[in-house]
Specification:
Oligomer: heterodimer
Strand content of chain A: 25-35%
Order of helices and strands of chain A: HHHHEEE
Number of helices of chain A: 4
Number of domains of chain B: 1
Structural class of chain B: mainly beta
Strand order of the largest sheet of chain A: 1-2-3
Distance between the termini of chain A: 6 Å
Low-confidence stretches of chain B: none
Strand content of chain B: over 45%
Helix content of chain B: under 10%
Low-confidence stretches of chain A: 10-49, 54-60
Shape of chain B: globular
Order of helices and strands of chain B: EEEEEEHEEEE
Number of helices of chain B: 1
Largest sheet of chain B: 7 strands, antiparallel
Mean pLDDT of chain A: 74
Distance between the termini of chain B: 41 Å
Largest interface: A-B, 96 and 91 residues
Chain lengths: 154, 165
């Protein structure tokens, strides 16, 4: 997630809402969202047995529950805040609710080398305000049971 | 990632499928509680990736490591959030993020109906990261961790939802 891009949106939009958000919600229903997401997960072979979004929702077990609200910068549609970026510094840093544990958040910038594996061509690019977070501890899942796990927002 | 300048965004790596209307770009990562460093186990010869999160709030430090996390490259955040762009390309990312440094310690109890519903103790300090990724025909390797910098960072212990009274 690139926090800088969302911050730029907020600054550049008179309403505080990105123009694409209205198009998204009008073009596709929430039910279709779930179907689309489920299809994509099923077609993507994952290399571990860890819980993945979409996967556990189908099982009805273990899935953590998203925080109930979301940043006004994205119209409240997405269950995430950007503390000290486009939301108040004391906004919720976690994306999981019913949680008792550790959380961490950072917006990190640096340089990366991209290598084309076919041609060997290398290019240098900046990564800017990459949003990296963790949540570690106990949480009450969608199954209402308490679990212990570690999550990352990447 | 951006074209130099920074110009237009050219890569946006996120772990979940479009659209991110549920749990936002969040997934479980392996937790290696052995606290062993990355490398081959002296006795078994098995590879330890040292994955997971370690937090020392007294010290104000934390370390998050993960390997081969499945992601999609959406190209830019507009495509990741709203679609309409190129089909995301699946890939894998590995990363190490370290929090530390002298920081401000704050207690937060936020009851705001939009931004709140949690309380906790936080250390606002700095963070650095190094990472690698493989997406399609491209490999990515960041510069070493110590060359990166953060515009904002915090770690803490918090309670929200049903744990927040």
């Amino acid at each position: 997630m690139n926090i800088g891009a969302i911050a730029a949106w907020k600054v550049g939009s008179a309403s505080g809402l990105p123009a694409g958000l209205g198009r998204l919600w009008s073009a596709i229903s929430r039910r279709q969202f779930v179907r689309t997401a489920g299809t994509a997960v099923a077609s993507f072979t994952l290399g571990s047995t860890l819980w993945k979004p979409g996967q556990a929702e189908a099982k009805g077990t273990f899935a953590p529950v998203p925080i109930p609200s979301g940043t006004p910068a994205l119209g409240g549609a997405y269950h995430v805040f950007g503390p000290a970026a486009f939301d108040p510094i004391d906004a919720e840093p976690a994306t999981i609710t019913n949680m008792n544990g550790f959380s961490g958040l950072a917006y990190i910038s640096g340089m990366v080398t991209q290598t084309n594996t076919k041609t060997g061509e290398q290019q240098r690019f900046p990564f800017v305000n990459s949003d990296m977070r963790f949540m570690k501890g106990h949480f009450r899942g969608a199954d209402r049971r308490v679990h212990e796990a570690t999550f990352a927002l990447v | 990632m951006y074209l130099p300048g920074p110009g237009n965004q050219i890569h946006d790596l996120n772990p979940t499928v479009f659209p991110p209307v549920g749990l936002f770009w969040t997934l479980e990562i392996a937790s290696d509680d052995s606290h062993e460093e990355e490398g081959n186990d002296q006795q078994t010869g098995e590879w330890h990736d040292g994955a997971g999160v370690e937090v020392d709030l007294e010290e104000g430090s934390a370390l998050m490591k993960a390997s081969n996390v499945p992601i999609f490259d959406y190209g830019d955040i507009n495509n990741a959030l709203f679609g309409g762009g190129p089909t995301p390309v699946p890939g894998r990312v590995s990363f190490k993020v370290a929090w530390g440094g002298a920081g401000q310690r704050v207690k937060v109890r936020n009851t705001d109906p939009t931004y709140g519903g949690f309380e906790g103790e936080f250390v606002r300090n700095t963070a650095q990261m190094e990472w690698t990724a493989r997406v399609g025909d491209y490999n990515f390797e960041s510069d070493p961790l110590l060359t990166s910098s953060s515009s904002f960072a915090e770690i803490g212990r918090e309670r929200n939802g049903s744990y927040f009274e």
